[in-house]
Design brief:
Number of strands: 6
Number of helices: 7
Distance between the termini: 9 Å
Structural class: alpha/beta
Order of helices and strands: EHEHHEHEEHHEH
Radius of gyration: 15 Å
Helix content: 25-40%
Largest sheet: 6 strands, parallel
Strand order of the largest sheet: 2-1-3-4-5-6
């Protein structure tokens, strides 16, 4: 079973985010879900992004990275959207990473390290109707990460918007979310 650090998106620890974490736990994995917002969550992405801007993206990234302190080195790092910043940084720079799962976002190679680390599998999920993922360079970054990884997978989901795997999101797509969850569980079983 895998030990997973799962970081939330800009809306915080929404019921859908927590349900995703619980599904991984129900499969036998240990899942750490630090709350970077101190108990706050937001009903809309706009409200969540306003909160993230008020804290600062750099500060949130540092909090996410610090959340790994005291946890085992052989973690699988997973994150939704905003959480991907710290997750990808940890996967690329913290020795011992067992794998990385990036949902709704990807950061260009070179931001944290010049290459994807050898021996660290990565799985990336994004919606084809997600303007952030498709139109702001994330899908291109995802393709580059997958191409650089020895074991990399990129899955895109037709008609799905941002945060489609979070059951409390307005973009939630039950069929695609179930497929994401199954693919993530398969990934965790093999890393």
């Amino acid at each position: 079973m895998a030990d997973v650090l799962l970081l939330h998106h800009a809306q915080g620890q929404t019921p859908g985010f927590l349900a995703f974490a619980d599904a991984l736990r129900a499969a036998g994995h240990t899942v750490h879900t630090p709350d970077l917002y101190g108990g706050e969550s937001f009903a809309t992405l706009d409200e969540g992004m306003a909160r993230a801007r008020s804290i600062g993206f750099g500060a949130l990234q540092e909090q996410g990275v610090a959340a790994a302190d005291g946890l085992p080195d052989d973690l699988v790092y997973a994150g939704f959207s905003l959480g991907v910043m710290a997750v990808q940084r940890l996967a690329q720079t913290r020795p011992g990473a067992r794998g990385a799962i990036l949902l709704d976002s990807a950061i260009p190679l070179g931001e944290f390290a010049p290459d994807w680390p050898a021996g660290v599998p990565v799985q990336i999920h994004g919606g084809e109707a997600d303007e952030f993922f498709m139109d702001e360079g994330d899908v291109d970054a995802a393709r580059a990460v997958v191409a650089a990884a020895e074991d990399g997978e990129l899955f895109t989901y037709a008609g799905c918007g941002h945060l489609f795997a979070d059951a409390s999101s307005t973009a939630y797509d039950p069929e695609a979310a179930a497929l994401v969850q199954q693919r993530v569980l398969d990934f965790l079983d093999r890393v």
